[in-house]
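pls ignore typos typing on phone
adenosine-5'-triphosphate + seq
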Amino acid sequence: MGESGCGKSVTWLAALGLLGSRARIGGEVRLEGRDLVGAPVAELERVRGRRIAMIFQDPSSSLNPVHRIGRQLGEALRLHRGLDGTAAEAEARRLLDRVHIADAQRRLGDYPHELSGGMNQRVMIAMALAGQPDLLVADEPTTALDATVQAQILELLGEIRRDSGMALVLISHDLGVVAENTDRVCVMYAGRVVEDAPIDTVFEAPAHPYTRGLLAALPELDGPRRVLTPIAGVVPDPWNLPTGCSFAPRCDRRIEACESAPPMPTEKAADHRVACIRA
Amino acid sequence: MTPLLEVSNLSRVYDVRRGAWPFGRRATLHAVDGVSFELAAGRTLGLVGESGCGKTTTAKLVLGLVPPSGGEVRVAGESLPEIGSPSWRALRRRMQMVYQDPLGALDRRLSVGRQVMEPLAIHGLGKAAERRDKALAMLDAVGLAPHHFDRFPHELSGGQRQRIVLARALMLDPQLLVCDEPISALDVSIQAQVVNLLLALQQRLGLAYLFISHDLRMVRQVSHEVAVMYLGRIVERGDPDQLFSAPAHPYTQALVSAIPTHIRHKRRRLVLPGEPPNPVDRPAGCAFHPRCRHAIARCRVETPELRTLADGRRAACHLAGQIG
Ligand SMILES: Nc1ncnc2c1ncn2[C@@H]1O[C@H](COP(=O)(O)OP(=O)(O)OP(=O)(O)O)[C@@H](O)[C@H]1O
Ligand SMILES: Nc1ncnc2c1ncn2[C@@H]1O[C@H](COP(=O)(O)OP(=O)(O)OP(=O)(O)O)[C@@H](O)[C@H]1O
Ligand code: SF4
Ligand SMILES: [Mg+2]
Ligand SMILES: [Mg+2]
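k done
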């Protein structure tokens, strides 16, 4: 989790080689020992969808408006599972059922514009699940879903994780969703991970001032309504980061030393790393 | 006083084919079915409900972007002019929509600045320099930086795109803003910033909002009234605090109980059993009855009307007021 524009989506697009030729990528991403950064296109294509599937944040970036849903699901099933004809159709229908879309058979013949926003989002989830991936990267997978359907979809992902051992990376702004569905959290700020801890620690004892700020900006469902307190200031421009800690200009715990060098992640407790010299 | 917006008995159906495409016989999909509400200047109506229940369709009907199959929309006492007519265009200037899918709403080939200034250009308002200044000021108001002006949509993060769409909708100083999931891609801090901006604009300019969102906490924060939809109909309407703390309709009860929380002493979640609802095959009686844990025989045959309860709110359930 982390502020809008902090680099959550780009991290995974980079890992999967989906950023295009103008992006320069450094570092490494290892899948069972093999580095994906700089791997040949053919190898990346075998990984994408099949080993690592991604649910993209914007439906319009992965659903084709001129093809029926059934055809798009069929395509994914052919590519990743080698299914064709009636087998593919039956599996496509089953996938739509699993993401709680009513009348799946009829919906296979619909175009994306004939579905609601949340249905399109669920079609994308079904497409990502079509390849039975080992790792699912879900970028804001439930933003278009109401609480009851969201709970059903997250329950489904949990079930698949338990049954098949699929690993899940969940990118979400909804702290409740994160709290209920993950084991550990990385909090990002301005392109870096600033806190990395087991889920309970993040909510019970957040250490980085940015993480604390996030929790304070959350509205409640009961009790008096209060003016929400956004974190003061704005995120620095990615090409113009402060020399020290990127969060320093907005931080109420800042001291002079914060501005001299970017803080390195340090072990605050077992399994809890924080990049803040005052944490 | 006439409310800014009056919606009465609004309906929209689509002709579809039932059963396996491309075969199957014709059937009717009821996307919106007899929806009524009013919205006064300076007020916010929150619209919530299950995915696919007809919220976006209601929004499009209100703006005249799709024609209704039945019912009426009145703006400041006047019926909505014919879609595409000059008076409709003039009216559209005062009523803007923030779309659910930001990337789909933006033109990939145009820079952010061009798109934010576009509404002014279309309506021939202001000189080039004024348009630019206003666009930059609007970007600032939604928490974006001046350098975003020259970028293209694909170079932005999801939340940045969503704010571009919001900035563009605000350029014409609308009286009514229909927001379809305006904050779902934003982190909580920027959500707070955008919501505070919307509230400030409302106070200053008397804007009215139709606020569609799945984030019930945020809906409570901004709304004067909330309407809950299920399968094309409004099933509960009332004061946000009342409605979320003690929902009267069994669907609202399930919805509220399903809100994820990071607080550890969790409430018990009501799981909705049964098939997801199908707008081509609406259950008889109360459309919610196959999934309702309170359903009685009467619910299977008689459709409950929206009726006023003792505490002033309205619910469409035979048992509302007796169940908690
Ligand atoms: N193709 C691109 N070219 C140039 N800059 C880009 C490109 N894609 C993303 N960026 C920039 O990189 C930064 C990180 O973007 P990213 O999409 O990873 O954010 P995010 O954390 O996913 O945010 P959100 O929560 O809003 O989706 C942003 O400042 C964005 O404007
Ligand atoms: N152009 C269309 N043709 C056929 N059916 C449509 C069309 N537009 C919407 N529908 C159907 O109308 C119903 C209501 O859709 P709508 O987009 O209004 O839902 P929504 O409440 O906004 O859902 P979400 O929260 O998922 O965005 C859905 O069953 C949808 O498939
Ligand atoms: S009318 Fe009956 S079925 Fe419908 S919500 Fe009320 S109790 Fe449940
Ligand atoms: Mg993103
Ligand atoms: Mg919608």
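The beta strands of chain A are 30-31, 34-35, 52-55, 135-139, 167-171, 184-189, 192-198, 266-269, 272-274. The two ends of chain A are 19 Å apart (CA to CA). more later
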